[in-house]
Design a protein that fits this description.
globular, alpha/beta, five-stranded mixed beta sheet, 36% helix, three-stranded mixed beta sheet
Length: 371
């Protein structure tokens, strides 16, 4: 079974332990609300519990890209939120290989990591023991791009469609639902240069990608393409989903809650103004080095947070898991034979624990400081 691969062959997993950086004051999203001192936003009893959890390793989805589920964790460390909650968090950059992340989580080499709900289901179906604990949206990042002369997806019948190694199930589901004759397509593997689409290299008429990445690159280069989103066709997905090592979650449930609490608090901070976006992307740039493209990464953060805003989890606060979406994902994974029929929706729902996010809210408002 092929896992979702954003990038490959990149940085090794070298730990970077972040210490508290910017101190703030006040109690709203315009300030960091961190004193920069250990235990300043938590009770002494709960602080001791979190310290007992020891080193917590956060493994990113892809390097230190300014994506949701990555940038807010970087910011939570730099703004001192983890320290405020007595959490000892080390950040590690992932390579973009979801299969690797799930295995590192299951083995205990990582504690928490961005893993889509679909990939949690696939991992568990393959005997990899991880638990999904959070998700920002039922919309995903995978999209299809076409040049402007394509106004209906059925115009792609018999045409050349490029992908990064495979066509994401969500994109395939969208195309099939739109009436595309799937077997008529000429599927070709392309690299990571999206300009092949406007150049129509090799007769290319469509190209898969991620809504916050390739379209922004093409727009910056002056190329205008049409973006086709599976969410617009009712195809289930997820964005900003997180998974944890089950043993750690069982032994230290308050620590898992507070990791999510700090990240959600940082998400609010990094989304609240242009100034804060620049600040948070700057933190990611500091970790990544001088070649980090802050302009593109700012566009990535803005695009992804807008997707979350436009497609909130129905009737629930940010970060909550929609178990009906999990059931919908199982149906899609059955349709494309990605998981066996023996995996039921009810079974898959048991691979997610919505209680951690639920417990950091009161009346749909994030509780900060912690109890």
């Amino acid at each position: 079974m092929q896992s979702r691969l954003i990038r490959s062959g990149l940085a090794s997993l070298t730990a970077v332990v972040l210490t508290a950086g910017v101190a703030g004051c006040g109690s709203n999203s315009s300030d960091s609300t961190s004193t920069g001192s250990e235990g300043s936003a938590i009770s002494a009893e709960r602080c001791a519990e979190n310290k007992a959890a020891g080193k917590i390793t956060y493994l990113s989805g892809y390097q230190y890209q300014s994506s949701v589920s990555i940038l807010e964790y970087i910011a939570a460390a730099k703004l001192g939120y983890f320290k405020d909650l007595c959490l000892d968090v080390a950040l590690k950059p992932g390579t973009g290989d979801t299969a690797q992340n799930t295995k590192l989580l299951a083995s205990g080499q990582a504690t928490v990591s961005p893993v889509s709900e679909q990939d949690v289901i696939q991992a568990r179906a393959n005997g990899i023991d991880i638990t999904g604990v959070s998700s920002y949206s039922n919309a995903g990042l995978e999209i299809l791009m076409t040049n402007k002369d394509i106004t209906r997806l059925t115009q792609l019948d018999g045409k050349v469609v490029g992908h990064k190694g495979y066509v994401p199930a969500t994109v395939e589901a969208m195309m099939v639902k739109a009436g595309v004759t799937w077997d008529s397509l000429k599927l070709v593997k392309e690299g990571y240069d999206p300009s092949v689409l406007p150049r129509r290299q090799g007769g290319l008429e469509a190209l898969t990608g991620f809504v916050s990445n390739e379209p922004n690159q093409l727009r910056a280069a002056g190329d205008d393409v049409t973006v086709w989103k599976p969410v617009d066709y009712g195809v289930p997905s997820s964005l900003g989903a997180m998974a944890v090592n089950p043993a750690v979650a069982k032994a230290h449930p308050h620590a898992v809650e507070d990791i999510l609490r700090a990240a959600l608090h940082a998400y609010d901070y990094c989304s609240s103004s242009e100034k804060h976006i620049t600040e948070c992307v700057g933190y990611a740039g500091q970790l990544s080095g001088p070649t980090y493209d802050k302009k593109l990464n700012t566009a990535i953060w803005k695009t992804e947070t807008q997707v979350v805003k436009d497609n909130p989890t129905p009737g629930q606060p940010l970060g909550s898991i929609d178990l009906d979406n999990v059931a919908g994902l199982v149906g899609m994974l059955h349709q494309f034979r990605i998981v066996p029929d023996s995996v039921t929706a009810d079974q898959a729902k048991g691979w997610f624990d919505a209680s951690f996010v639920k417990d950091v809210y009161a009346a749909d408002k994030l509780v900060w400081p912690a109890p």
